[in-house]
Design a protein that fits this description.
- The strands form 3 sheets. The chain has a 5-stranded parallel beta sheet. A 3-stranded mixed beta sheet has the order 6-7-8, with helices on one face.
- It is globular.
- The protein is an alpha/beta fold and 203 residues long.
- Helices cover 29% and strands 22% of the residues.
Length: 203
Amino acid sequence: GLLVILSWFGKRPPVWYHSAVIWTISDLHLSSAQPKPMDIFGDRWKEHPQRIAAAWRDRVRDDDTVLVAGDISWALKLPDALPDLAWIAALPGRKILSRGNHDYWWESPGRVRRYLPESISIVQGDALDLGDVVICGTRGWITPETPGFTAPADQVVYNRELVRLELALSAARKLAAGARPIVVMFHYPPFIDRKPTEFARRI
């Protein structure tokens, strides 16, 4: 069975479990088609794809699941994101992706799904049944209490993401039937200064 343990990559030795594990990561910021070196943001980003891949292979097994919660690729168009999706697909485990604010390549869910490698699925305002657990998600957005929030531009996106969250949770609850845990993928932190936003309250 699937052991629901949410783990993340970091400066830790490899860990092994008797059951499958759910891992979480985000902000891969890959750029295979048109390289965009991330070390302009600091030394911690130097050769980050190679370091992520090494940590991933050290920890993740083929029967594990990895949730990738947005900011996957710098590509602007879906064809340019395909090499990055192939890079992710080549790593161990089943991968479930959700959208981030920098995923400009992410078109409609239906079009993205048509080009996904076999080991990758996505969620956007919907849910996936993994057997022992249900995964749902959406991108989220900055909230009215966030400094810099502007109306109407941010308000429109914020309202849309609240609707998508409700759709995702509704689909997940239907699949879970009150008997299985639900994991919500979300790119934006649903807390500000340790206080819940409307996204967190709805979850």
